[in-house]
Design a protein that fits this description.
41% of the residues lie in helices and 20% in strands. By secondary structure, the protein is an alpha/beta fold. It has one domain: Flavodoxin domain (Rossmann fold, 3-Layer(aba) Sandwich), CATH 3.40.50.360. It is globular.
């Protein structure tokens, strides 16, 4: 199954998890970038507000077309109980090109249920599987990642 992992990471936590998954699945990977619009304390506040209000933002062009893949894995941090604004923007633009999807999110401790549900809602697809990692899980993510990968295969 040809798989693409698409993620956004403001602080590199989601990036770390995405890279572990990518290595284990040997799949293509695409980082969604936005010219650091959400860096720092102001970016953190702006990101939470934009996510809560379901605003889109400007993201940089992508290099991989999701329609070329059997499965697209979406990875996002949780912002105000939602997916990160750059991922929301990506999904609003490309959701019709995604055939099947799985999703994961990283968070401090909560909001993941809502964020994962929102991904499903925006894509219009029931995920093959989902995973969330809290700050506690991120210290040792291997077990959750292995279960996530098993559920994909």
């Amino acid at each position: 199954m040809k798989t693409l992992l698409v993620y956004y990471s403001r602080t590199d936590v989601t990036k770390k998890i995405a890279e572990i998954i990518q290595e284990k699945l040997n799949c293509d990977i695409e980082e969604i970038t936005d010219n650091n619009r959400y860096k720092g304390a102001i970016g953190y506040l702006k990101g939470g507000m934009n996510a809560a209000m379901r605003r889109t933002s400007e993201i940089n062009p992508i290099s991989k077309n999701p329609s070329d893949y059997d499965l697209v894995i979406i990875g996002t941090p949780v912002w105000a109980s939602n997916m990160a604004t750059p991922i929301y923007t990506y999904l609003m633009k490309y959701n019709k090109e995604i055939k099947k999807m799985a999703s994961f999110c990283t968070c401090i401790r909560g909001g993941y249920d809502s964020a994962l549900e929102n991904i499903s809602e925006v894509t219009g697809k029931k995920p093959v599987t989902t995973m969330f990692l809290t700050s506690k899980d991120i210290e040792n993510p291997q077990e959750k990642i292995n279960t996530f990968i098993t559920n994909i295969k």
